[in-house]
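Late entry, written up from scratch paper. The run itself happened at the end of the previous shift, but nothing got recorded in the book at the time, so transcribing now.
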Amino acid sequence: MTRDSRTGLDVLSYDECLGLLAHSPIGRVAVHLNGHPPVIFPINYAFDEHNIVFRTDASSILHRAHQHTVAFEIDGIDRRYHLGWSVLVVGTVEEVTDRSELAALATLPLGPWAPGPKSQWMRIRPDTITGRSIPPHQHET
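Output as recorded:
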């Protein structure tokens, strides 16, 4: 593992980032659309062939983010030992409309957590996937 000399954080490898993305059910999507302030939405998602897949409502800002660049983040912390990690995905959101793709996505363990219809399947195609972790350290007393 490489340490960032500027921040003192450990840089997670691409494969470590993929592993964390594959096993974390909740993340946050940051969206900035023209005419709207930047917003961040918590979502439950599935990780499918290096893509973030989620469901949303047809009238949501996330649905209107189709073909826009977004940031997606997951993280984990250990409050007791002051450890943690973060994975950041930057990519383009697209609506999934192909019937065969929709049929395949419907087999994923991804049901809506929040109330209301979530009929639109969306995918974030990553341009970059990076991650950092806070290394174990001596605590001051």
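The chain has a mean pLDDT of 89.
(Scratch paper discarded after transcription.)
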